[in-house]
Amino acid sequence: MKLFIQIYLLVFAILCLATYSNAQITIQVPGASNPWPAGMPEGTTAEAGDRAPAQSPVLVPLKLAVGQWLEFSRIAGSVSHGPGLRGFGAEGDLKHIVWHAAHAEHSKSDVVAPVNSLVGVFLGETFPAGVTPVRLDFSAPAARAYTELHPVLRQTFFIGDGMADANQRQRMYVPQGATRLFLGTMDGFGWVENQGAFTVTVELFGTPILLIADKSAGPELISPKNGDVLDNGCQDRKNGILHAFEWSEVPGAQRYHLYVKGPSARIPVIDDSNITTTGYTRWEQGSYIVIGNGKGWTWKVRAMVQGQWTDWSSDRTFDVEPVDTDCRSGATR
Predict the structure, then answer these.
(1) Separation CA 104–CA 111 (nearest Å)
(2) Which candidate in 37, 123, 136, 198 could, as Cys together with 52 as Cys, close a disulfide (CB 3.0–4.6 Å)?
């Protein structure tokens, strides 16, 4: 009986501790923080001339993992979308609902929300890449008054003042594969002209869930498809070979391994195990594939998750066009 009571008290204590914040941070989010360059390298451009890092969103300096959630305990300040215009709090201008003029950009989804509102996007460790998530729509008051939100990786979402109502904070759950949260402001284009800033206090709750790598869960190959015909060069070497490969994102992947081999080759033409995005482009100026080696190329991909490689994807095959195809049309690269 005594042991049972001790176990009960231990479980009760753990459950009680789970309701307390693991970490808290207060940061400034300038009005010029464009969410779409999140995670992109210096010099990356966005709609209407915004550029990283000058108009990049703000990284919340907390290490995140699936199983955790975020709450916003205090948000102050105001933002306007141009010099001399009225500023609004984190809920934004509720009479002026906008979406991103470029829609999806840099593999992050579009979002519909009040202009000047506080928004966020979760990313993993690597540069954003992969199939763009669906757009979330927060134009209706009910959509903005959620109690819990479960966005996926790279899906831009509305935060506002962080409150479902006057007494209840909203919870934003960390999606699988996410380790970072970026905060920005909502606008249609041209964040460079935005004024003001929000002061945001973020609290992290919950216990990370350890995800064991599924050895069978390799990437899904997207492009090229079986039987696709890819580029070839010219014998006069005025052209070249341009091949692009794309596959699905594996949650929690640190890197990918792409293996591409010709129909009769013993050595692969691509054997790269340090790819940090879900795409790869092969460009060889002045090269071409000789007659007889154009059919039956194969490619496959695997992912590194928690220090272990998944199984390879299934093989796919593709062909390359006859040598000098582009030259006959007068095309050059």
Answers:
(1) 8
(2) 37
Beta bridge partners of 147: none
Spatial distance between the Cα atoms of 112 and 109, rounded to a whole number of angstroms: 10
E-strand spans in 124-170?
136-137, 148-149, 157-158
Closest to 153 measured CA to CA, from 184, 131, 185, 183: 131
Residue 169 is predicted with a pLDDT of 97
What residues have CB less than 8 Å from 278, skipping those under 6 apart?
Answer: 129, 130, 219, 246, 247, 248, 249, 256
Length of the chain: 333
Predicted TM-score (pTM) of the model is 0.64
**pLDDT tens digits for range 73-88:** 999 999 999 999 999 9
CA proximity to 156, closest of 172, 140, 168, 145: 172
- 3-state SS, residue 5: helix
Check residue 220 and report its DSSP letter.
P
Contacts 24+ apart (CB under 8 A), 268-276: 270/299, 273/304, 276/126, 276/127
